[in-house]
Amino acid sequence: MLKVLLIDDEALVRSGxxxxxxxxxxxxxxxxxxxxxGVLDLLHRHHPDVVLTDIQMPGVDGLEVTRLVTAEPDPPxxxxxxxxxxxxxxxxxxRHGATGFLIKDTPPRELVKAVHVVGGGEAMLSPAITRRLxxxxxxxxxxxxARTRLAPLTPREREVAVAVGQGSSNAEIARxxxxxxxxxxxxxxxxxxxxxxxxxxxxxxxxxxxxxT
Length: 213
Hints:
Blueprint: E1 2-7, H1 11-23, E2 27-33, H2 39-46, E3 50-53, H3 62-70, E4 77-82, H4 87-95, E5 100-103, H5 108-119, E6 124-125, H6 127-137, H7 142-150, H8 155-165, H9 170-177, H10 181-195, H11 200-209
Parallel strand pairs: 1-2, 1-3, 3-4, 4-5, 5-6
Helix pairs in contact: 7-11, 8-10, 8-11, 9-10
């Protein structure tokens, strides 16, 4: 059972999202909040697997929620759900360590799927956002720094990192490389340790920064 902490300043939205999530298998909304002011207390009390948060909220907004949550030891996945897909929000949320970013017009079935995906350690981005990532992150002066961070990787670790940057799941990478999913997870763990990335979304950003997709 995946435990979800739901943060949105609109009570009606919270009620609707909770109904959608709990109508699917294996999801329980363990706590709700109208903004992120008490997010760390809620984390420590309820130990959610996924934090599902809006961005624009009074007080502590979703970007700060993402930063606070991902700074915790062994943090839950953060899935951002918002009406705003402005590039500045997307990029800041992903830089802070968000694992997923969805727009509120996402169909209910896709929302349930997204919670399962990020709860399982994978990344989940709206297709429109995914299409814009390479154009944004592969430009600017970060390419040299990104390649420097990737330099310590072994050839196999680099293969895994590039596959993550292309949006492949662990299962897809395992099939392509002829190895087990457990082996892919080991390689991905080493990629994150060597590059300083905190999750697979940040690995993908690093690959895009380096211009490798």
